[in-house]
Amino acid sequence: MSALAPLLTIVGPTGSGKSDLALALARRFDGEILNADSLQVFRGFDIGTAKLPAADRQSPPHHLFDLALLRGLSPGPPASPALRARLAQRPRLHRLLARLDPAAAARIHPNDRNKTLRALEIRLLTGQPSADVFAQGLDALTGYRTLQLGLDPPRHLLYANLDARCLRMWQAGLVEETAHLLTLYPPSAKPFAALGYKQAVDVLAGRLPAPAALAEMQTKTRQYAKRQLTWFRAEPGVVWLPGFGPQPEIVEKSFRATEHFLRSFV
Fold it and tell me: Does CATH number 3.30.420.40 belong to domain 81-134?
C-alpha cells in the first residue's frame, strides 16, 4: 500500500462547475473539500464569489482555507507593508519595474498593479529579479500523490454561462451586499477590487450606472476566464474533461478517472 495519501484537485475557468464536481466526487469517495479560492475565505462576500450555501458546505465537510498548493510556497520574501506604502505613492510603477526588472515587466500587464507591486517588492528586498528568486525552487508538498482534473467546457457555452451568472448575481442583490459589506470592511479590502464587487462599488459611488456596470462585469469575467484557461493549459498532467462540472457525463468520467487513481494506492 502506498505511504502517500491521495489528493484530488479540480482546475478550470470560473463558471465551469468546479464546486459542483467537487461535491459529487467528495460524496462518491467519502472525501472532504479544501477551498482554494482566495476570495471565498472572506466572511460575508457570498454573492459575488458564488460561494456555496452554508447547508451545502456541511456534508461533505468543507475547509475554507486558501491552501491547495501542490508545489509549495514561493521562496520570495514576505510582503512589506512599509515598502508597499512607499511604492504606492509613486507614479508609473510599471515603468520603474521595467527599469529594475525588465523580464518581470514584460510578462506583467501595465494595468496589473498588484503583480507590479509584488515584483518590485521582490526586486528591492532581495536585490534579485523575481525570476531568479523563483528559480531557487519551492518547498514541495509532501505526503500526497495528486490527480488533477480540469474542466474545459466549449468556449461559447462557457461565455453564455458566465453572462447569465453575472446577471443572476446582480439580480440576487450584489450591489446591496456590497453596500452592507462596506459598513463592515474598509474600501481597501481585497475583495472590493474583485470582479463584480468592483463594479458594484462603482455603482454605489456614482461612477457607473447599473446597466453599464453589469456589462463591464460580464465582459471582464469572460476575459478573466480566457486567461485562466491559458494558465491551466500550461499545467502538466491535468486530465481534461470537455464540459461543465454538473454534466452527468463529466461526473461519470471524473468518477472513472478517480477510481483508476485510487486503485493505484491499494
Answer: no
